[in-house]
Design a protein that fits this description.
The termini are far apart. By secondary structure, this protein is mainly α. The protein contains six helices and two strands, in the order H-H-H-H-E-E-H-H. The model has no long low-confidence stretch (mean pLDDT about 90).
Length: about 120
């Protein structure tokens, strides 16, 4: 059902990357500079943020604006396509908020039954 060329699999792959949804969510209020994104997100390295922004740009989810200023300034902004992913990301976040404790309890149960 989820073949390599399946559209649903494409969507799962886009949101399956740890940082894609986080960066998209961080851009929901408008354009941001990379440093602002790092501060907002926390725990993401400059290298990983750059790779994520490039991947999101490649997939048409963000756009990069470079300004001819001194010093150079770059901002990233969601495209209409990127904004269309905000409701599913929000729904997934709500699910996580409601069920994270249950998931963690299940993990604890399994880890408690494993032998060292």
């Amino acid at each position: 059902m989820f073949l390599a060329d399946c559209q649903a699999r494409l969507a799962f792959d886009l949101l399956g990357n740890t940082w894609n949804a986080v960066v998209l969510w961080a851009l929901r209020h408008g354009p941001r500079r990379p440093g602002e994104l790092r501060d907002t997100i926390g725990g993401i390295s400059t290298k990983v943020l750059t790779e994520t922004l490039r991947r999101l740009e490649y997939n048409g989810l963000v756009t990069r604006h470079a300004y001819a200023e001194a010093p150079p300034r770059v901002e990233y902004e969601l495209t209409a396509l990127g904004r269309s992913l905000l409701p599913p990301i929000a729904a997934f976040g709500e699910w996580a908020f409601e069920h994270a404790d249950e998931v963690l309890e299940a993990q604890d149960r399994v880890e408690g039954t494993r032998s060292p």
